[in-house]
Input
Amino acid sequence: MLAAPAVVAIVVFVAAYVLFVFRERHQLLIAGVAALSVIGLGLVSLSSLLPTGWSGRGGVVEWDTLGLLVGLFLFAGTLRELGLFRRIARRLAARLRGRPLALFLTLSVATFALSAFLNSISVLLVVATVTLELASEAGLDPVPLLLAEIAASNAGGAATFVGDPPNVILGTYFQLSFGDFLLHTALPALAALAVILLVFSRTFRAAAPPPAPTAVAEREPPEPRYGVTVALAGFVGMMGVLAVQGPLGIPIWAIGLAGGGLALVLAGRTHVRNVLRHFDWPTLAFFLFLFVLVGALVQTGVIGALAGGFATAGGGNVLLTGTLLLWSLGLLSSVVNNVPLAAAAAPLIAAIGGGSRIPVQPLVWAAALGTDLGGSGTPIGASANVVGVAVYRRAGVPITWRQYVRTAFPVMLATLLAANLVWLFLR
Output
């Protein structure tokens, strides 16, 4: 039987989730009010909001996660301002405009690859805009292209440590490296991509090519190549330090903030103002509030009780427990944003491992795959979905819930199945 504080924490958490679904535009305000409520009710102590040492860990807020996200957002904004995303999409698609299937495959694979290393919000913002232009010129329906790109983006985000916010949250919580994720989630993510390409390719095989390809107009002056090259080199350097940060003993938050400062320097005076103006502060604040909400569940014993339930249902078997996690988080992630799910899953997995003989790391991979891939199921399941649908809506191509779910939800189930099978082999 749960105590009264635990019940209150559950009520606040569930109420916030429900409002996230029905009031997506106000999710930051909702999360902020909910976080202040649990603090005001004494469910989270003020002292637990601060880290206990240099590592940025020890409190309910994952400050190392927030520091890393600052660097990732700034690098993504810099590369976007330098025109890298648009240049890649335009140049690849310009060579394949006469072949709808080739256009679909190129954009989907490019989205997967970019989302594995860059913030999916930035990737979808540019790719969706370019896709609208290219689909118009090629005489194609842009909606299937976007749905495929969203699914590919979420699959790409599952492949690496930095690909999607849930992976950053889980990786930093359990102090896992870039290489750890690459070894254990990249293959399941590629299996999910193969399913996406197979399912959506049927739509574009039947599409007729345009009568005569035309050149894509270059609306913006090209940026100097050295600017993009230097920025890419800086980003790769940041990824390299992340890959070896464990032996070096450098806190992840420090790598993120140093990388963010480097990104601003590389952006130069021409672009730094735009990078800062478009920086995603609301998402960082949203994460902060979510950590506080999850902290209330941890400190009132809710997470411990859930962990016991999962461990009992799994019977102490890592394969069954991991599969239960992958599918339950995947299905939940299709109806609520996957960021709060990952924030809740991290302490849940730690509690399962602490109360049983089940190894923790295979459960982390299962949770990452479930939260990332499940986010493709509905328009609000992941940030990439929200951004892509908003770009189309502003351009006069609205996508209804029914239209989205009818196409995307079955694909999401298929990707979860493919990833689950590969996870069983790799775990």
